[in-house]
């Protein structure tokens, strides 16, 4: 199987006062039959702040951590990117003066219909449709796949976790194909599963280790590589659930494989509005599922996982396919320009990409982390990697032409 591009890279504590207070903040009389208020703080009931401080100092009973599931106690937290406001304060720059090329967002944002629709929300005080009917109908039209095969989520991220919650028993194994999106590994850990990282020998690994599912990403984040039909079909023949993440499919020349779920009962295809439609902040993703699987996801999902604002925004975005196409074309043009310019930087080796980002190996003894930090001081954010197979690599999202210009200016300054 040719995965050549990838192969190359190789609580708040409850105070005593809290227990004494009844619902709505009303205090139970101190003579209440059941009182968990420590004797020592009896005098402080009139001074809740002092009581809270005293209680915090004299912790009693088992530690909070002892209640946490064992496999989660050693979980490394997911490292998300910093939000604009935090970045802005740290860099001493206004958010609009920061060039964000670190999270593969779409700098053009959604079509104007989205702001209009959000401004006209009629019933924000009513819970959203648990079945996201309008959105799924719009997606059926957009994709050509009937809505009964489609389920929407709070980003593709939510669906990755939902799939794992439905499929994995603690101790089960999954396969992912590094370097890839780290959320698979993170969610696997949250769900008590083990991750096998063996791209070269998938058939053997499936036979010997019997993993439950494999996560394939096409185009892959972070190297921008794609999976061809032949390889995908070979993997689909194995006794394993295949989750194909197409978060960046629009930036490639590939057609989505959403409709394949009708033929392959072991295939799930994930998509998102974050990249194509510039809606990362509103959190809308969706998946195509075989009917034999989707039924269980419906049962297990949070009922109101897609907010009213998210559903309305996604539907509005789909109303303007011309805008989406234009923005995509602008990003593709810019990707090609960015790639050519990066090739000229003597300490970078960019990889050709089928997506809206470019992975670069940092060469000539330069340090990836230092490059990221120096660019950040100039207001340009990129992603650097310092772990495992990607140590010494950076990833740059494709932005607007002026973003590329600022990046290149920064990189050239680092050359001196
Ligand atoms: C491969 C891949 N899948 C899924 C996601 C998450 O998508 P969403 O924003 O819809 O949660 C990302 C985000 O960067 C990604 O890179």
Automatic annotation (TrEMBL):
Q: Which residues form a coiled coil?
A: none
Tell me the InterPro entries matching this sequence. Aminotransferase_I/II_large, HisP_aminotrans, PyrdxlP-dep_Trfase, PyrdxlP-dep_Trfase_major, PyrdxlP-dep_Trfase_small
Q: Does the keyword Nucleus apply?
A: no
**Lineage: superkingdom:** Eukaryota
Q: Which PANTHER family match?
A: HISTIDINOL-PHOSPHATE AMINOTRANSFERASE, HISTIDINOL-PHOSPHATE AMINOTRANSFERASE-RELATED
Task: List the protein's name.
Answer: histidinol-phosphate transaminase
Q: Which organism is it from?
A: Oryza glumipatula
Q: In which pathway does it act?
A: Amino-acid biosynthesis; L-histidine biosynthesis; L-histidine from 5-phospho-alpha-D-ribose 1-diphosphate: step 7/9
Q: Pfam families recorded for this chain?
A: Aminotran_1_2
